[in-house]
Write a structure and sequence with these properties.
It is a single chain. Strand 5 (about 155-160), helix 6 and strand 6 (about 180-185) form a beta-alpha-beta unit. Strands 7-6-5-8-9 form a 5-stranded parallel sheet. Strands 2-1-3-4 form a 4-stranded parallel sheet, with helices on both faces. The chain folds into 2 domains: about 10-130 and about 295-309, 3-Layer(aba) Sandwich (Rossmann fold), CATH 3.40.50.1370; about 135-290, Aspartate/ornithine carbamoyltransferase (Rossmann fold), CATH 3.40.50. The chain is about 45% helix and about 15% strand. It is of the alpha/beta class and about 300 residues long. The N and C termini lie close together (about 10 Å). It has 12 helices and 9 strands. The structure holds phosphoric acid mono(formamide)ester and norvaline (NVA). Phosphoric acid mono(formamide)ester binds near residues 54, 56, 57 and 127. Phosphoric acid mono(formamide)ester binds next to helix 2.
C-alpha cells in the first residue's frame, strides 16, 4: 500500500497504513533480536539531508539501511549545494537519479513538500518545524509494547510546548484511537490547522483530541504522560524566556500523582533535566524512554522497507 509513497505526515496515512508500519516494525524488531537477516532493501541507497542537528535520527536511519542490506549517505547542508542556494527542485531531481529514497530534516515544512513534489523517489520527513512523524509512529510502537497492541481507548497527556511533537501526536493519536490532550501555556498552543485536521481524522477511530492550559487537568487518569523540550531547534535565543513561561508545565512527581497508577512517561529526547522533566522522573521511566529511542530504528526500517521496497 505504501510502496513508492512519501511519508511527510501521519495525516496522509490511512489507519491501515499506520497499522501496517507498526506490524512490520514489530516483525523486524523480533527478527533483529533473533539474529535473522532481513535484507528487504538490498543494494538500495537512502540520501539523508540534515539542516538541523541529530543523534537518534541520523544513527537509526543509517544503521537501519545497513541492516536492510542497503546503505545511507549523510548529506549535511554545510556540504551540499543547497547550502549555497541550489534550488530544492533541482536537488530533488538530481538526487532522484542516484538514490532510492530521500530523508530530510529541516526547518520549513513547505521545503519537504517541495522536495517530495519534485522527487521521483519516496521522501521521508525526519522532522520539520511543523511535524516529526517518524518519532510519533515510533512512540505508538513503544506504547503497544508497554500497554498492548490495542491502542484504542488509552489516554495520552502531553504537557509543555505546542510544537512539532505535539502536532504529530495529534495526528498519530487520531489514527490510533488514543484520546489525546495537550496542556500548553496560552500562546504556545499547537498548530490550529493540524488540530482541526486531527479532530476530523479522529472521527474514524473515535479518539478525542483536546487542548487545555492546565497540566493537572491533562494528566488526570492518563495512561501515558509525554513531554518535549521547551525550546526546539531554532528557538535557542528564546530559551531563558521560555524557561520562565513553561515552569508550571514540568513533568514531575506532583504532576504524575494525577495520572493512572500504571502510567508510563515518554520523551523523544534530547531531554533537559530540571526543565521539562525532572531527573528523578526521567530515570524512573528510563526503560520506556530508551526503548522509545531504540524503536526509532525498527519503525524507520519498516517505513523505509514499505515505501522504498
Ligand atoms: N528524537 C529525535 O529526533 O532525536 P534527534 O534529534 O537526536 O534525532
Ligand atoms: N521539538 C524538538 C524535537 C527534537 C527531536 C525540536 O524540534 O527540536
Amino acid at each position: 500500500m505504501l510502496k513508492g509513497k512519501d511519508l511527510l505526515s501521519i495525516h496522509d496515512l490511512s489507519v491501515e497504513e499506520v497499522n501496517e508500519i507498526l506490524a512490520l516494525a514489530h516483525e523486524l524488531k523480533a527478527k533483529q533480536k533473533a539474529g535473522i537477516e532481513h535484507h528487504l532493501l538490498k543494494g538500495k541507497t537512502l540520501g539523508m539531508i540534515f539542516e538541523k542537528s541529530s543523534t537518534r535520527t541520523r544513527v537509526s536511519f543509517q544503521t537501519g539501511m545497513y541492516q536492510l542490506g542497503g546503505q545511507a549517505l549523510f548529506l549535511s547542508n554545510r556540504d551540499l549545494q543547497i547550502g549555497r542556494g541550489e534550488p530544492i527542485k533541482d536537488t530533488a531531481r538530481v538526487l532522484s537519479r542516484y538514490v532510492d529514497g530521500i530523508m530530510i530534516r529541516t526547518f520549513e515544512h513547505e521545503k519537504v513538500e517541495e522536495l517530495a513534489e519534485w522527487s521521483d523517489v519516496p521522501v521521508i520527513n525526519a522532522l520539520t518545524d511543523l511535524l516529526h512523524p517518524c518519532q510519533v509512529l515510533t512512540d505508538l510502537l513503544t506504547i503497544q509494547e508497554y500497554k498492548g497492541k490495542q491502542l484504542k481507548g488509552l489516554k495520552m497527556a502531553y504537557v509543555g510546548d505546542g510544537n512539532n511533537m505535539t502536532n504529530s501526536y495529534m495526528y498519530g493519536c487520531a489514527k490510533a484511537g488514543i484520546d489525546f490532550v495537550a496542556a500548553t501555556p496560552k500562546g504556545y498552543e499547537p498548530d490550529m490547522q493540524v488540530f482541526e485536521n486531527a479532530c476530523k481524522d479522529a472521527e474514524e477511530t473515535g479518539a478525542s483530541i483536546k487542548l487545555v492550559n492546565d497540566p493537572f487537568e491533562a494528566a488526570k487518569g492518563a495512561d501515558i504522560v509525554v513531554t518535549d523540550t521547551w525550546a526546539s531547534m531554532g528557538q535557542e535565543a528564546e530559551h531563558d524566556m521560555r524557561k520562565k513561561i513553561f515552569a508550571p508545565y514540568q513533568v514531575n512527581a506532583q504532576l504524575l500523582a494525577e495520572a493512572d497508577k500504571r502510567v508510563i512517561v515518554m520523551h523523544c529526547l534530547p531531554a533537559y533535566r530540571g526543565e521539562e522533566i525532572t531527573e528523578e522522573i526521567l530515570e524512573a521511566y528510563a526503560d520506556v524512554i530508551f526503548d522509545e529511542a531504540e524503536n526509532r530504528l525498527h519503525t524507520q526500517k519498516a517505513i523505509m522497507a514499505l515505501t522504498m521496497g
